[in-house]
Amino acid sequence: MSTTQPRVENVIIVGSGPAGYTAALYTARADLEPLVIEGWQWGGLLQQTTEVENFPGWPGGGIEGPELMTKMRAQAEEFGARYITDEATELKLSEEPGGVHEVHVGDDVYLGRTVILAMGAEHKKLGVPGEEELGGRGVSYCATCDAAFFKDKPTVIVGGGDSAMEEAIFLAKFSSKVVVVHRRDEFRASAIMLDRAKAVPNLELKTPFAPIAFEGEPQLQTVRLRNTEDDSEETLEISGAFIAIGHVPQSGIAAGQVETDAEGYVVTEGKSTRTRRPGVFAAGDLVDHTYRQAITAAGSGCQAALDAEWYLRDTPLKPLAEAGEGAAEPAS
């Protein structure tokens, strides 16, 4: 029988992006040697973004999204964060305070006293021709992030909810004209948001239409629309298209173990990042319905790191349950 005691990490972070890398930075500076299961597509949604002008500290035109993520990743690594560039495939989260959690990566199992969930959320896609090809070249998913690049240019917003209206109203401050395209006659947006949108002079509501293709080379130049009632088509000349049909939180791996709401966002306790599982915390777009900005994700990653540090300080480690393994050996 082996007497080797398995290593139990102080902190395992599942996911990357601003939340995951900020959590890694803070826990690394606290000498907790975090292990980050960052995924194959590390860096989150900012890896799909071009210029980022609204992240503090980057005057003179901002910074490219992938470069920002690379710098955040490297900064955490300087203080001792370790990375596994692979996907977490299963979680087994303890229900007991002081219990040990399991994070599976294929056949490999990593044990941790705390786990920070930072898997983020993905933009819902239309799935029409040109959407992927023109991503970052006219097609965007965040007007708050990218509106300034379309100053005095015609644009469209695709969507019918409050978020779409908020994006359209913001975008109208920059664009020469904003057309909100929605596939149904009735909008899902609240009456007050619709009234605000209708009051904007350079904003038009266009129904019942759905995009069927984005076109242009090398930049977006036109969008083809189909009338969902009579199948007629028309083409609009535009420079920018913003898809605002919602997000999909990447919480599936934790389903049934932490509480989620009807949309799949992880529920945390009050203003903390604590989930219903002791020693398990959640941060970033995985929990954020409202703001979904790089800076707010980074801020919640900081909160999760501090919550994890305080948990480790106040909660003794329980022995591993398997017979013959004895007490687990925590990371130094």
UniProtKB/TrEMBL annotation:
Residue ranges of domain FAD/NAD(P)-binding in the record: 10-301
SUPFAM superfamilies: FAD/NAD(P)-binding domain
Keyword Flavoprotein among UniProt keywords: yes
Entry-linked Pfam families: Pyr_redox_2 (PF07992)
Recorded catalytic activity of this chain's protein: [thioredoxin]-dithiol + NADP(+) = [thioredoxin]-disulfide + NADPH + H(+)
Cofactor: FAD
Top EC class, one word: oxidoreductase
Membrane-crossing residue ranges in chain numbering: none
Swiss-Prot/TrEMBL keywords: Disulfide bond, FAD, Flavoprotein, NADP, Oxidoreductase, Redox-active center
The keyword Disulfide bond belongs to this UniProt entry's keyword annotation: yes
Example GO molecular function: thioredoxin-disulfide reductase (NADPH) activity
Taxonomy, superkingdom: Bacteria
Cofactor binding note of this UniProt entry: Binds 1 FAD per subunit.
Entry's EC annotation: 1.8.1.9
Family per similarity comment: Belongs to the class-II pyridine nucleotide-disulfide oxidoreductase family.
NCBIfam families cross-referenced by the UniProt entry: TRX_reduct
Subunit annotation: Homodimer.
The protein's name in its UniProt record: Thioredoxin reductase
